[in-house]
Design brief:
Blueprint (H helix, E strand, L loop, with lengths): L4 E7 L2 E7 L5 H8 L18 E4 L2 E4 L12 E3 L12 H8 L9 H14 L5 H8 L9 H16 L1
Parallel strand pairs: 1-5
Antiparallel strand pairs: 1-2, 3-4, 3-5
Helix pairs in contact: 2-5, 3-5
Bound molecules: FE2/S2 (inorganic) cluster (2 copies).
The site of one FE2/S2 (inorganic) cluster has 11 residues, from loops.
Length: about 160
Amino acid sequence: MSEKTDVTLTINGKDYAIAVEPRRTLADAIREDCGQTGTHIGCEHGVCGACTVIVDDAPVRSCLMFAVQAEGKAIRTVEGLADGDKLHPMQQAFMDNHGLQCGFCTPGFLMLAVGVLEREPNISDEALIDVLSSNLCRCTGYQNIIKSVRAAAQEMRK
Ligand code: FES
Ligand code: FES
């Protein structure tokens, strides 16, 4: 077994001091070493987007990043979206518009959409659909996901 490296990950504003092999993915470290299991793992090779988190304000596929690369960066996961009991507008919109079916892909969609809208609040509809098509929902519930993100975009612009 290769040697472990000490690394501190900052997830939703909290520091997690962990020891990981250099090859450990950020996705595995978030889930297994830091116990934040809201981030889901699907394909493990960058295709499905289920593992999307926000790293330094950009949506990132955490299965494609090593944990050691994330040291010193601000990582946001689905657990950090709500403000206490108050859901983030994106979470509320997914609830209101039936944007989640099985829900396995949902954290990845939420983080992708939040990350994109924070950077580009007035993103065109065409570009938004293009971005969302990069994540896979195996229930093929895209219509309601798109509807949810459009509704949240309006809310986030307020
Ligand atoms: S698990 Fe990371 S993209 Fe599929
Ligand atoms: S809700 Fe996305 S895979 Fe089912």
